[in-house]
Amino acid sequence: MALNRCEACERISSCSVCGRRVTGFDHIGVRASTQRREAHDLSLRSAPHGSGIWHFSRPCGHRISSPKVSPRVKYNGGPLWKDGYSWQSIYWGSYFTTANSSSWIKRIETAILNIETDQAYSGGLSEYNVGRGRIVPYTIIKKDPPTKVSDVQIKQTLAGWISQGTVSNFGSAGAYNIFLPPGVTALLSPLEASCKVFCDYHNTVNGMDGPFYTVEPYPCAKGCNHCTNDPFDTLTQGLSEEMVELKTDMDPGSGWVIGNEEICDYCDANFVCNRISTGEYVNAWYDKGKNACWRGTPTANIEPFSTGVEPGQSRIGTRV
Ligand SMILES: [Zn+2]
Ligand SMILES: [Zn+2]
Fold first, then answer.
1. H-type helices in 56-150, by residue range?
2. What is the pLDDT of residues 125-141, one digit of tens each?
């Protein structure tokens, strides 16, 4: 059973898009793209934009604007990541069998290990009673995903891989980072496509029982990297955020949240480019002990936030 209702949506009885009665909501932890919205695209213009816990009405599937709740850090009692839990990467598609991709995969695997073992970055999450995991060897799925793959298809496919033994079976004691090849779009609804409205996300197949996963589309050209133009940096910014948010809020909305946001979403508002000690760009998480967003070490060669800001993106750089 996925989380049906949270504090933000408990009083909502009808879908704000179609008016149908709702029986509950699917909650998904999403990092929004900051691409400029095209004025002619009404579906996007009227859509709620920020990173956070996105709400999809049941049974109609429409995404509603995230309801307002007070922005205080709160734990809702759901599962949290423990020491010794496992990460496995799943590289989905024949693209990842090519010689060119093997160095890309190697860089990503090194980054995952560095992110997960970084004392300050992932170690600091102990204040949320979150541990650090181990990294098990990755899997390449040679069969290509559809060019448009929905989250429902991803859930079904992941469950199939686990039952067939194609990937490890962690039960609820681990998670998968699912990497999509170039040219494949992930869809949260027919209107909500990767790179167009979001960069990446994390979710669960069966609520608090997992399996838990992040979805990392091939790095978007725009809207998902506020620090550099390097696709690898785009990837690690998104991946670090989804890993942190998966660990602190495994079933989106049931763990540590700040209103409708997870702990990195909150820091998107005063975005600062940060790197961990091994040099990878990472997105900051809210440090409740310091009442501030996480900062990398001063020696980590931090560049000021200067590129990637687009007019009208008020959530970046201005939190009031
Ligand atoms: Zn909710
Ligand atoms: Zn609806």
1. 99-117
2. 999 999 999 999 999 99
